[in-house]
């Protein structure tokens, strides 16, 4: 019986796990409770793996540089961008955004960029953190 | 399959799915069993239809290219590559050579990660979870490089109509090269762990047989066809992009020294050796990559108006990790395409399940089903749902519906 895996298993015993334990080093009894504690400053989060350069995370919008040309709305695949005629500015719904950064490429003024922020999950899709304007 | 009332005598019908722990994606199987042996097999795909083509026909090509990224969860570049090639033919765009090489590099990295993912799934289906974890750990290195080049891990967003959106600079070469060297060292180990293992050999040899004739008659594609000895590979048969400059040939199981049996074992051999082939291709591309721009038209509004003016139809093809992927696009002078049809590689391969499964034991079903590397969310394109009943519409049914509608209109 050939079992070439045996050597690999014994070698693995002396190696560190490849997985980064996130958000806590050891599984807390309740992850929700743990995150609440983190929010209150009672516990610290085990940091996630660093994002690569050019990572496409939550969108950042420089309102003052925008000229209201609407080109970003034309190329957004998810229809996540809305034009507000009164202010001639845009509003981006992060919950709908698919993080393709196509709007960044087409923007003639370069006012749209992608930040490395990626922990965006909430229960309310219209929460303050989910709307960029 | 089994008509009328269920019988108390054999053959018994064993349904598996649409949702079942043995299946990674939704598809329904019906097996007529005699004892442990599958006498007759049938399957019903169409459980994961999302209407993505309908969405595409209401958007412009630049928007669609990012939707194609999301057709499949594993092939992040396959569909956008095939779609971009279709549009480029219609609009008559010449992609810069530099961009073609970057496209090939990322497509081959995708093949590496997809085949390693499959190897892990196959090991898991056999109950060999240690090997599953190992395969997925080494897969991460390819994922990390993809992330390093494109910015994201799964939805790369790299392809643009007429080129690519991100360059591979000389500063990035050492990181990519390090990953490739890692895979070259690893390959011998993976071949040893998968192919020398007695358990895997017992479970996979002479299991899920697909003969050369069956593979050819059923039009199977990709590694499934090649494992049965059909030397079929879009990259070689119809060279596109930078593949024309490369010296590659389809990998058959004979490359490992054995005969061609067309069993699950041969499919493992083909996929593992293709990882080695992809490493070679990437290395050649990195060395021979010509200088130049990465986009045909960097000004996107100009690209959009060029696409809007275009008229015609074209087929874009790409050799995905699972086989040939095909996108048909027709443009008629509007912003959105008039027609867009996706044929994923698994669509061609699903039919090979029936000859593979018949005569096998029920316990072999998971590994045989997994052996063609089915990707059902890519495949499922049309589903007819009426109330709680889902059905196939025949010509007679449609005619009947039409007659009924005429009567209804006449009635009111």
What this model shows, in words?
The complex is a heterodimer of chains A (133) and B (412). Chain A is built from 4 helices and 5 strands, in the order ααβαββαββ. Chain A has 133 residues and is α+β, with helices and mostly antiparallel strands. Chain A has a domain of 86 residues: Alpha-Beta Plaits, CATH 3.30.70.3270. In chain A, strand 2 and strand 3 form a beta hairpin. The longest helix of chain A has 10 residues. Chain A is elongated. Chain B is of the alpha+beta class and 412 residues long. Chain B folds into 2 domains: 70 residues, no CATH class; 315 residues, Orthogonal Bundle (Cytochrome-c3 Hydrogenase, chain B), CATH 1.10.645.10. Chain B has 17 helices and 10 strands. The two termini of chain B are 41 Å apart. Chains A and B meet through helix 1, helix 3 and helix 4 of A and helix 2, helix 5, helix 6 and helix 12 of B.
Kindly report the name of the CATH homologous superfamily of the largest domain in chain B: Cytochrome-c3 Hydrogenase, chain B
Helix amount of chain A, in percent?
10-25%
The proportion of strand residues of chain A reads 5-15%
| CATH class division of the largest domain in chain B | Mainly Alpha
Strand order of the largest sheet of chain A: 2-3-5
Poorly predicted tracts of residues of chain A: none
Distance between the termini of chain B: 41 Å
Number of strands of chain B: 10
Task: State the CATH topology of the domain at 48-133 in chain A.
Answer: Alpha-Beta Plaits
Just name the CATH architecture of the largest domain in chain B: Orthogonal Bundle
Protein name (chain A): 4Fe-4S dicluster domain-containing protein
Domain 4Fe-4S ferredoxin-type (chain A): 57-86, 88-117
Keywords (chain A): 4Fe-4S, Electron transport, Iron, Iron-sulfur, Metal-binding, Repeat, Transport
InterPro entries (chain A): 4Fe4S_Fe-S-bd, 4Fe4S_Fe_S_CS, Fe-S_Ferredoxin
């Amino acid at each position: 019986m050939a079992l070439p895996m045996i050597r690999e298993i014994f070698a693995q015993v002396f190696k560190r796990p490849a997985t980064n334990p996130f958000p806590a080093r050891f599984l807390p009894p309740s992850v929700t409770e743990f995150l609440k504690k983190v929010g209150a400053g009672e516990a610290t989060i085990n940091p996630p793996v660093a994002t690569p350069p050019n990572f496409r995370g939550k969108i950042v919008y420089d309102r003052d540089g925008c000229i209201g040309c609407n080109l970003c709305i034309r190329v957004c695949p998810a229809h996540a961008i809305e034009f507000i005629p009164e202010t001639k500015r845009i509003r981006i719904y992060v919950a709908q955004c698919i993080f393709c950064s196509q709007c960044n490429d087409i923007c003639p003024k370069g006012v749209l960029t992608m930040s490395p922020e990626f922990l965006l999950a909430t229960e309310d899709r219209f929460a303050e953190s989910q709307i960029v304007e | 399959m089994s008509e009328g009332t269920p019988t108390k005598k054999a053959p018994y019908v064993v349904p598996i799915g649409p949702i079942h722990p043995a299946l990674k994606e939704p598809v329904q199987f019906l097996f007529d069993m005699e004892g442990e042996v599958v006498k007759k097999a049938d399957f019903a795909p169409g459980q994961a239809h999302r209407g993505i083509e309908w969405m595409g026909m209401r958007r412009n090509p630049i928007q669609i290219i990012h939707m194609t990224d999301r057709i499949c969860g594993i092939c992040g570049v396959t569909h956008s590559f095939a779609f971009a090639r279709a549009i480029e033919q219609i609009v008559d765009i010449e992609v810069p050579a530099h961009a073609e090489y970057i496209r090939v590099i990322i497509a081959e990295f995708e093949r590496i990660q997809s085949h390693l993912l499959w190897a892990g799934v196959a090991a898991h289906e056999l109950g060999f979870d240690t090997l599953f974890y190992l395969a997925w750990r080494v897969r991460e290195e390819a994922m990390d490089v993809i992330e390093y080049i494109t910015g994201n891990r799964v939805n790369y967003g790299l392809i643009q109509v007429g080129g690519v959106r991100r360059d591979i600079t000389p500063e990035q070469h050492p990181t990519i090269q390090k990953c490739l060297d890692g895979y070259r060292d690893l390959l011998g180990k993976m071949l040893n762990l998968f192919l020398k293992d007695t358990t895997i050999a017992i479970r996979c040899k002479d299991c899920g047989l697909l003969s050369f004739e069956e593979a050819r008659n059923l039009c199977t594609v990709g590694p499934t066809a090649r494992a049965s000895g059909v030397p079929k590979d879009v990259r070689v048969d119809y060279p596109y992009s930078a593949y024309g400059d490369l010296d590659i040939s389809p990998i058959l199981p004979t490359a490992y020294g054995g005969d061609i049996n067309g069993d699950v074992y041969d499919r493992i051999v083909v996929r593992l050796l293709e990882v080695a082939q992809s490493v070679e291709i990437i290395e050649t591309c990195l060395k021979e990559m010509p200088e130049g721009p990465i986009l045909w038209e960097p000004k996107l509004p100009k690209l959009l108006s060029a696409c809007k003016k275009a008229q015609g139809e074209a087929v874009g093809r790409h050799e995905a990790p699972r086989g040939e992927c095909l996108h048909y696009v027709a443009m008629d002078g509007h912003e959105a395409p008039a027609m867009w049809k996706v044929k994923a590689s698994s669509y061609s391969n699903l039919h090979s399940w029936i000859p593979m499964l018949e005569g096998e034991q029920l316990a072999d079903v998971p590994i045989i089903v997994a052996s063609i590397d089915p990707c059902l969310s890519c495949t499922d394109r049309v589903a007819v749902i009426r109330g709680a009943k889902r059905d196939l519409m025949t010509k007679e049914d449609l005619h009947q519906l039409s007659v009924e509608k005429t009567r209804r209109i006449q009635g009111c």
